[in-house]
Specification:
The protein is of the alpha+beta class. The protein contains four helices and four strands. The protein has a four-stranded antiparallel β-sheet. The protein is elongated, with a radius of gyration of 58 Å. The N and C termini lie far apart (156 Å). About 8% of the residues have low confidence.
Length: 213
């Protein structure tokens, strides 16, 4: 007797790194898709269940409202405990109610009343302007030049001497020339005369001129 011998073959697969990565990626994608489909299916089932519950609650509420309305009009009682229903009277009552509601909507609101308040006439007063002589209408001029630099230098020397009220005044002559006049104080005539005595004691001041502003 001859027995046929079956050869055993061992098949080995050699995959590269890239192929292994692709297989792993496909496995992950299939897992994610399966998980997503499970979520969608469960969500849709929950939505259908909630819709059915809402529908049942709505039907129950409508039945309760219908029963309450019938009990209000005494229609839910049995014929043995109540008198016969007057359908014509109920129809007339309904029509009258609708008609009164429409009339109430058509009625216009009265226009708001306005109150006019008359104000008393304004009193007009005439004010007379009175010219008064201002105190400080005199000044002392101690220097005059056509150069602004010389005038500023002279002014600074006066400030150094303690004359804090010294200032420079600009004057334009008839032939469009500028004069820079160094002056001290804006005061009364009596105080200006006393100030002039002090200015004459300064060694770099040649003359002191009392000028009315």
């Amino acid at each position: 007797m001859n027995y046929s011998k079956k050869e055993k073959r061992i098949v080995s697969l050699q995959l590269s790194k890239g192929q292994v990565v692709i297989l792993m990626a496909l496995s992950m994608v299939s897992l994610v898709v399966s998980f997503y489909l499970g979520l969608v299916t469960g969500k849709s089932l929950r939505i259908e269940t909630s819709v059915q519950q809402l529908e049942q609650e709505r039907l129950q509420n409508e039945a309760v409202a219908t029963q309450e309305s019938l009990s209000f009009f005494q229609l839910g009682q049995t014929a043995s405990k109540s008198s016969p229903i007057d359908l014509d009277y109920l129809e007339k009552l309904k029509n009258n109610t609708e008609r009164l509601a429409q009339q109430g909507q058509k009625e216009e609101k009265p226009p708001p009343t306005t109150t006019t308040t008359l104000l008393p006439p304004l009193e007009v007063r005439t004010v007379k302007m009175v010219k008064t002589q201002t105190v400080g209408s005199y000044t002392l001029q101690v220097f005059s030049t056509g150069s602004s630099e010389r005038a500023n230098t002279f002014h600074q020397r006066l400030l150094d001497q303690g004359f804090a009220d010294a200032y420079v005044s600009t004057y334009v002559t008839g032939d469009n020339k500028k004069l820079f006049r160094v002056r001290v104080g804006k005061t009364s005539k009596k105080e200006a005369e006393a100030l002039a005595i002090q200015l004459k004691k300064v060694d770099f001041i040649d003359q002191v001129q009392l000028t009315k502003l």
